[in-house]
Amino acid sequence: MQRVIDRVGLIQIDSVNVLTRSQYLPFFSRLGPYDTALLDRARDRSPRRLMEYWAHEASLVPPATWPLLDFRMRRALEDSWDGMQRVAAEHPDLVDAVRAEVEAHGPLTSRQVESRLEHDAPRSKDEWGWNWSLVKNALEHLFWGGEISSAGRTAQFERRYDSLTRVLPKPMRHLIDPGARPAEEEAFIELMRIAARAHGIGTEQCLRDYFRLSPAQARPALQTLIDKGELQPVTVDGWRRTAYLHVDARRPRAVHAEALLSPFDSLIWQRDRTAALWDFHYRLEIYVPKEQRVHGYYVLPFLYGDALVARADLKADRPAGILRVQSIHWEDGAPREAEPALQRQLAALAEWLGLAAVADGAG
Fold it and tell me: What is the mean pLDDT of residues 11-19?
């Protein structure tokens, strides 16, 4: 598991649970069936090997990556969602009370924080004007701003907010002080370095999208990595943009892989890259009205050999103990041998999820 963490650098998380929580799937794709408790332990127990922050989207990152995102924390009042900005501006006393509650009694969910505040800081709700939504916004403001962290998630996917003192590994606790964190220019270089190592080869757009960097943030860092000899500008047949090859990227003569990929797998985040590498045009249709979906609700691309050859719309029917295959769409030219390989992967996925069988259709 640690090798996967070291290679990809971050794992996106998402609340959709039609199959399983998205953070578990990238490890299954790369390792096969594994004990998900190992990932939970890496995230939830000290000394943590993973912690949560806004990296690509909501993501799990190694603790060493967290201070590199200080530039995002510093812009919490400008870049965060409106509700977070309003609670910081209009209810600073509530924000202070929420911070104190988490630091004293965390880890706590947002509902637990509200319950404790009613006991520990009783006052008229008219005076504060607060409700559950305001408490949640205050917590999210503090989380975005890097003033508190997360000690994991509940089974219902609620963040368990906690103090930085308890979440950061002991050797890193000096980084609670923003002044001790890397300067922005240094952080951008390291974030682009992580992205380049994860990609092996990619365009500027591929690399900067990994941590959602702007061109102004990414380009000087990219040039630094070129000047240091860590990246080499190259051309790739069929790619319109210059690509950058990492000095440690392996160049195997042949690749054979068989893996179902999460819709939130970093391998397919950057849709232009996915199309350029595999001529595979992937669209996440979770938010598309059902009647307008082309391939399905929760569609996992299937990697066979060195190509994306199919899309499987899957659902874990836990009451029935069945992995339901809502549909499978094959790409033109998919090899015949890919079909039994996909069936093997579906059977392995079902067993890993604790489901007794694989069945076609919605049931």
Answer: 94
- Taking residue 157's Cβ as centre, other Cβ atoms within 10 Å add up to 12
pLDDT at position 129 over 50: no
Contacts of 65 (CB under 8 A, 6+ apart): 9, 10, 55, 191, 194
- Region 295-308: mean pLDDT is 96
Half-sphere exposure of 32 (CA within 13 A, CB side): 6
Alpha carbons within 13 A on the beta-carbon side of 89 = 10
CA distance 229 to 196: 12
* HSE of 347, CA atoms in CB hemisphere, 13 A: 6
The whole-angstrom separation of Cα 359 and Cα 102 is: 46
Cβ-proximal residues to 279 (8 Å cutoff; 6+ apart), any chain: none
Spatial distance between the Cα atoms of 101 and 103, rounded to a whole number of angstroms: 6
One-letter amino acid of 158: E
Q: Are 68 and 190 contacting, i.e. CB atoms less than 8 angstroms apart?
A: yes
**Residue that is written with structure tokens 């595979």 in the block:** 280
If phi over 0 gives left and psi between -120 and 50 gives alpha, with beta otherwise, what is residue 282? beta
203 — pLDDT class (breaks 50, 70, 90): very high
Mean pLDDT of the chain: 93
Q: Which residue type, as a one-letter code, is found at position 267?
A: L
Residue 75's CB is within 10 A of a number of other CB atoms, namely 12
Q: How far is CA 9 from the centre of its chain?
A: 10
pTM score, two decimals?
A: 0.93
DSSP states of 302-349 as a string? EEEETEEEEEEEEEEETTTTEEEEEEEEEPTT--TTHHHHHHHHHHHH
Instruction: Report how far residue 120's alpha carbon sits from residue 236's, in angstroms, rounded to the nearest whole number.
Output: 62
Residue 202, classed as helix, strand or coil, is: strand
| Separation between Cα atoms, residue 28 and residue 37, nearest integer Å | 13
CA dihedral 93, 81, 53, 11 (to 10 degrees): 160
